[in-house]
Amino acid sequence: MRLKDKVAIVTGAAQGIGREYSLRFAQEGAAVGVVDLRYEQTKMVEQEIIERGGRAAALRVDVTSEEQLNAMAKQVFDRFGRIDVLVNNAAIYYDLELGNSSIEYGRKVMDVNVFGVMLASWAVFPYMKRQRSGSIINISSIAAFPGAVQSVMLGHMPEIEKPTADYYGISKAAVIHLTQSMALSFGRYNIRVNAIAPGVTMSEATKKVVPEPFVQALTSGSALGRALEPAQLTGTALYLASDDSAMMTGQVLVVDSGRKI
Ligand SMILES: NC(=O)c1ccc[n+]([C@@H]2O[C@H](COP(=O)([O-])OP(=O)(O)OC[C@H]3O[C@@H](n4cnc5c(N)ncnc54)[C@H](O)[C@@H]3O)[C@@H](O)[C@H]2O)c1
Fold first, then answer.
1. Residue 241 domain flag
2. CATH of the domain at 157
3. Res 158: pLDDT
4. Is 21 considered catalytic here?
């Protein structure tokens, strides 16, 4: 078991890829804080982990609330005794309004996808600092690289109102900057910060949000020629969470079937 005796928190863990990270981490021996706005679903993930003999705690948290995040970190620490891993996976994706280019909406996306990552990391920082160890894994996306995604999407859009209103892509690019700047500032406490940038992954969210022609266009041009399944991202997260990556920080691992080569 590669995470034996470790304690992990996964945000956005109610469904999709975050659920898979939670199940895999628990299978590898970690106690998991299963965190999301969708409380009923987090309870189901908690239940699934417990039924398989693992340890988990479902927590309803809005990652835009500093107060709720601080309470979450305290609850996980009080319950399990330490905090080793944080996966900043929560994001506006399932509920993404692709056609909404208003600046108010852009602020909302940034609030969750960028400041949520920052606030959750601040919330666990005091615990990791005391332990002199920790691994923070931020979930970016290949949408962070305009040449990988935006150029393909543009080919399918005859009319464009505001070409730069790719709030999701902008937020995921900011996650990469955050990863690198946090890696620099947290390194002295032996806290590592890395990112995963997944390519098109067939979660419920992708099926709901991304029109089929986009999925086709984005995957057919990749080296492996197909989209990922959510569980296929868990190995990379496990590697970054475990001591196998002990000297790796500030890195972005692109897991995208070879789209962004
Ligand atoms: N599926 C893909 O193709 C893909 C590709 C690249 C990156 N990603 C990223 O991977 C992550 C998971 O993606 P997914 O496909 O499972 O999508 P998803 O939308 O199902 O998962 C995101 C989760 O975050 C939660 N969330 C949203 N706002 C929140 C808030 N304010 N507080 C707490 N929780 C909140 C949602 O309830 C949801 O459960 C996201 O960060 C997404 O941007 C996905």
1. yes
2. 3.40.50.720
3. 63
4. no
Residue 181 lies in a domain: yes
Residues 6 or more apart whose CB falls under 8 angstroms from that of 185 comprise: none
Identify the residue whose C-alpha is closest to ligand 1 atom 18. 94
Mean per-residue pLDDT of the chain: 95
Question: Would you say residue 152 lies in a domain?
Answer: yes
pLDDT band for 119, please (50, 70, 90 cuts): very high
Euclidean distance between CA atoms 90 and 83, whole angstroms:
18
**Residue in 165, 52, 178 with CA at minimum distance from that of residue 120:** 178
SS3 (DSSP) at 240? helix
Residue 163's pLDDT is: 59
pLDDT digits (tens, 9 = 90+) for 149-173: 877 777 776 666 655 678 999 999 9
Domain of residue 173, residue span: 7-255
Question: In 10 A of CB 71, how many CB atoms?
Answer: 14
* pTM greater than 0.85: yes
pLDDT of residue 239: 98
- Residue 13 CA: which ligand 1 atom is closest? 39
Average pLDDT over residues 113-124: 98
Nearest-atom number in ligand 1 for the CA of 228 is: 3
Cα–Cα distance, 43 to 220 (Å, whole number): 37
| Structural domains in the chain (count) | 1
Q: What residues are in contact with ligand 1 under a 6 Å CB criterion?
A: 11-12, 14-18, 36-38, 61-64, 89-94, 112, 116, 139, 141, 198, 200-201, 203-206
Q: Of the residues 94, 167, 168, 239, which is catalytic?
A: 168
